[in-house]
User: What shape does this take?
Amino acid sequence: MNLLAVERIKLFSTRSPWFCMIGALGLTVGFASILAIKSEHVSVGATQGMYLLGLMVVMVMSTLAVTTEYRFGTIRTTFQAVPRRTGALLAKTTVVALVAGLVGEVAAFGSLGAAKLLQPGAALSLSTAADWRAVAGSGLVYALAGVMAVAVGVLVRQSAGAVAILLVVPLLVENLVGLIPDLGAKIQPWLPFQAAGAFLRGTHEGAPYSPWGALAYFAVLAAVLLGAALVVAKKRDA
Amino acid sequence: MIEVVGLGKRYGRTTAVRDLSFTVRPGRVTGFLGPNGAGKSTTMRMILGLDRPSSGHALIDGTPYRELRHPLRKVGALLDARWVHPNRSARDHLRWLARTNRLPPGRVDEVLDQVGLTAVARKRAGGFSLGMAQRLGIASALLGDPEVLLFDEPVNGLDPEGIAWIRGLMRGLARQGRTVFVSSHLLSEMSQTADELIVIGQGKLISQSTVSEFVAAATEHTVRVRSPQVERLQKALVHKGATVEQDGATLVVGGLSSAEIGELAAAHGVVLHELNPQRGSLEEAYMRLTAGAVEFGTS
Amino acid sequence: MIEAIGLTKRYGSTVAVDNLSFTVRSGRVTGFLGPNGAGKSTTMRMILGLDRPTAGSVLIDGKPYQELRHPLRTVGALLDAKWVHPNRSARNHLRWMAAASGLPAGRVDEVLDQVGLTSVANKRAGGFSLGMSQRLGIAGALLGDPKVLLFDEPVNGLDPEGILWIRRFMQDLAKQGRTVLVSSHLLSEMALTAEDLVVIGRGRLISQGSTADLIGGATQNTVLVRTPQAQHLGNALAHKGFQVESKPDGSLVVSGASSDQVGDVAASCGVVLHELSPQRGSLEEAFMQLTGDSVEYQSSEVAAR
Assistant: This one.
């Protein structure tokens, strides 16, 4: 518990995490609001349209929580104060994941709420399990993506490199894979952010997993990355 | 107490530290000297569990650093004053650090006051001068009221008042029975601060001794003598087997202690105007001992 | 020679340098001392024409810096060793500086050799340690073989061998008849290096003169005496009106007397001496005495609890 408080102090005593959180909420809720103003036929799914962009911002925040520690040398101070490195990094991961998850929920329900306010006539009630998953599931995806971002940060240690990986993989690489004839379509469901998307939007006929299976797969990937990061950090010179 | 036993560190094919053993005892300031690249910082990092030794180990009161339950309460260290997030305030930096080892939050304001940073406690550390950053680093070292303190080049960036202050601080901490281990390149400063010296070169131990032993072993002892009866004194000295060099009215005498010279002068009824034992400087002694262990030689 | 005449620099309502006048003579190393925030760096920047004085002027051999025909051949300066592009090699950094002031390219290798960087001349400066950067900065200062040299904290980051090297180096430059002005916080180092001192505090001149005079004027000279007949000698000295203090180790510290006087007293009452050493005050004591009230961050007295 104590280590969680340490990481909470660290995260909230600089400005950039606040900017990232406000940015993520502004992008998602702002987009949903514009959508609702422009169209009367807005759906629950459509209000969540900017989830990936918000997710990017939160992942940047999460990875910076680690890479800035390497950049400014505070990781050494951290390991000096808490030589059990695994504990220190798990605490950081937990705090970041909780904050990311909270931002995800606020972004999702905020988007829905803003759309409801601006377009009271639209069919925006959460009537099906799929609707609930599309909105409330955001927090889970954000939290797990936060874990991945922390793990990448620990492995890469440099802000520019970590941010590039976290932006390029979901936005470019995963989509380009789909262009490979035959093979692309088979591989694509096994790419992390495609799986996360499948969980939120629901799976197509013939998908290799159910929506909750997709989330479980995403969680396993996050856990594997985190495990690798913890092992590396423990062995490496600080 | 810090015990270093057979400590070694290799990076690929280069050996930074090899088979290094020494003990840093409490109640005194121990200076850690060596040319650039001698392995001082690496050794300090291994003592603090930041780097993993390739061989050997370092113990703090018998326990490896990584096994200490509340390390900051046992060991305080200032390795690099710039290891602070530039957008975090001095106070917030100490606040999270205090929390890691369950130190009471009130301790933060105490150490800020002790290093003279209370007025800028809420300013971002990124805007600090090197001297202020150094004071913040010293504050974090003192935070846990530790028995063992490590400082790497602590006077870096401090002004004369700050230098005198930290010298007094380190001596005061040692007097309270704490173990104080300081690395520095400033030998004239170290000769005023340290009681004991550990000197390394190219990753190996060159010597461990008290400062006065270190200087005495590596430099020559002479005595500067002035007298209105120089010639009579000179004869007596030469008769006793001393080596005497005359420099105007001053004699530089080797081979006899100042007490022996004084007795001799009294026996011959010679008036003395100066009887001044010349101690070599720490710098001279250091240069003799480390010759050959230097990274960049200059023409 | 460097002459500052009524030099003043204001930033808004803060006065960094306040009507400062001093002269730095050639042929000797002059130390430039002052607490943090005293205005040393600002003064050095004004000498080099980087900052414009609000009032007053500073002349180098009679001319303001901006009017020098070949500034790098007249004045060499090391202000901040990190003013180097990290991806440029040491040699290329010096090459552009040489080209900029019309100096022959061969001079680059000469100065690299002079500072001991020949073996790393083609490595990128960004990978240099602080000590190596410092040497590169010094090489840059020497490039134009200037008559006037300014160094700001030159021993920063150097190891003991480097510190000894630069001390001798600066003294050699002065012996060649050059003007050498060095700012530093390391008083024990300055006491060994500088013959003259300029001390400022809160932007104003506190003292200017030779190092020996400055120390002598601000501290008390004493004589340390060790003798098997301490009580006897102590009484005799006290009787003569000198102030005598007994130390726990049995030695005496006499103030108000020269060692000659103490020696004469000892001889006249047949006291055997084991030591008779004149003690000079340190530059640090003198500095603290002089600058007492112009310090920026004062730390609280005691050590840890």
